[in-house]
Amino acid sequence: MLKLLLVVILVALTVYLLTRAAQRAGGPALPKRPHRRQEPPRVIGPDDDPDFLRDLDRKRKHPEDPDPS
Fold this sequence. Notes:
The longest helix is centred in the first third of the chain and has 23 residues, at about 1-25. By secondary structure, the chain is mostly helical. It is rod-shaped, with a radius of gyration of 32 Å. The chain has helices spanning about 1-25, 50-60. Helices cover about 50% and strands about 0% of the residues.
C-alpha cells in the first residue's frame, strides 16, 4: 500500500513539474475568445421604460391634462 502511494505521489509531482515548465516556456496558449459587445440594457417592464416613467410623472403633476395618445 505504501509503495502504491509513493508511485501516485511521484506521478503527480512529475505531472506538476512538467506543467509548470511548459507554462514558463510559453507553452501553447489557449485561443482567446472574441470580445462581445455590450448591448444596451433592455426594457424589461414598464418601470424600466423612461418614456413610461416620464408620462407617469406628467400625469401625477397635471392630472387635468388630456391623454396625448
